[in-house]
Structure to design on (363 residues):
């Protein structure tokens, strides 16, 4: 039975507040919506923290990726969060009330086909959707997630700050582990450039340092470079100020970096990345500009550079990311806002004048 303040005798409220994207006019509003009812393969989570990912801004921009984003009815934004289990569906094996969880955002895929083993956005049996991009995401107090996406967070990890692990963190971790797999096993004398030292980049730097690599951080923002240094980068450069940065990187590293992980959404930043690399260097494509990238075919055919890709991955990889982050004390830097300050947070993200990740901390 509902009480005056909307709570039921079963302790859960019936309504909640959510930061929702309105596709009609591409605006964001804080709306009151019902608490979701879970299906047998779902878990209801009380969100503790949700953070903003740069790709959330794709809702507001045109894209050439062929992605269908933000159509139809208003839906809750956000695809990066963590929280505590409040209700478990019958099929959600191995989870119980009170568990601390993080999770991935693709739903309505089968999780089992060949495509799902690489990335379940491309499931051939289901109709994959991204929570926070086309259906309700996590800038709301309670959300329903698929148990197949969920990973338990160790008790001694801080829920308030670990939300960024569940998109930026696992993307950075996968980019680093996919890069490391291509490099000689001598991290101490192996140089990796991280292009873009914001939300994703500052975590990529921490993972690389945990593996023992030498790191060069590159960003156009002074704040991001401060964060890069705090995250352990050996050298940092701002191409706007250090106009000879390519020459200097090549001097410091001998002949150029062994690998460069580009997490930016900037085509010009990608165009200059091959120059940072030595012969047969790895160019890891991680950030997603809205327009196609161009590289010299000869650079690729002659193996001057090796172009690879990485992304947020699948649940087994997320599990490894959480384990590694726990073991090595990886700390996402998050600036917290209240749900009511959502628009302010969005504007700050758009301005690029922020360090680390921006997020909402719920009560
Ligand atoms: Zn993301
Ligand atoms: Zn599938």
């Amino acid at each position: 039975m509902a009480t005056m303040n909307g709570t039921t005798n079963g302790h859960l409220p019936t309504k909640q507040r959510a930061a929702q994207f309105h596709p009609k006019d591409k605006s964001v509003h804080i709306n009151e919506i019902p608490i979701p009812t879970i299906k047998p393969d779902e878990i209801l989570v009380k969100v503790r923290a949700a953070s903003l990912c740069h790709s959330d801004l794709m809702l507001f921009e045109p894209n050439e990726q062929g992605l269908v984003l933000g159509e139809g009815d208003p839906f809750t934004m956000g695809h990066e969060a963590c929280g505590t289990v409040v209700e478990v569906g019958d099929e959600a094996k191995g989870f119980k009330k009170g568990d601390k969880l993080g999770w991935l955002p693709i739903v309505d895929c089968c999780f089992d086909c060949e495509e799902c083993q690489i990335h379940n956005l491309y499931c051939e049996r289901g109709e994959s959707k991204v929570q926070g991009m086309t259906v309700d995401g996590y800038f709301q107090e309670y959300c329903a997630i698929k148990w197949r996406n969920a990973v338990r967070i160790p008790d001694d990890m801080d829920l308030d700050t670990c939300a960024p692990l569940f998109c930026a963190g696992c993307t950075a971790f996968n980019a680093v582990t996919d890069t490391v797999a291509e490099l000689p096993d001598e991290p101490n004398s192996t140089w990796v450039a991280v292009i873009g030292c914001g939300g994703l980049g500052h975590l990529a730097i921490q993972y690389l340092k945990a593996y023992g690599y030498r790191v060069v951080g590159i960003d156009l923002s002074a704040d991001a470079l401060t964060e890069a240094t705090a995250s352990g980068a050996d050298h940092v450069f701002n191409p706007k100020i250090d106009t000879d940065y390519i020459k200097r990187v090549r001097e410091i590293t001998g002949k150029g970096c062994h690998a460069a992980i580009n997490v930016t959404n900037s085509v010009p930043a990608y165009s200059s990345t091959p120059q940072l690399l030595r012969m047969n260097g790895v160019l890891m494509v991680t950030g997603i500009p809205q327009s196609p990238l161009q590289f010299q075919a000869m650079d690729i055919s002659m193996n001057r550079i090796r172009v690879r890709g990485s992304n947020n991955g699948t649940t087994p990889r997320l599990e490894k990311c959480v384990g590694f982050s726990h073991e090595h004390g990886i700390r996402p830097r998050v600036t917290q806002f209240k749900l009511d300050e959502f628009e302010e947070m969005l504007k700050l993200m758009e301005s690029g004048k922020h360090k680390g990740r921006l997020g909402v901390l719920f009560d």
Observations:
- The radius of gyration is 21 Å.
- Residues 170-309 form a domain with the Rossmann fold fold (CATH 3.40.50.720).
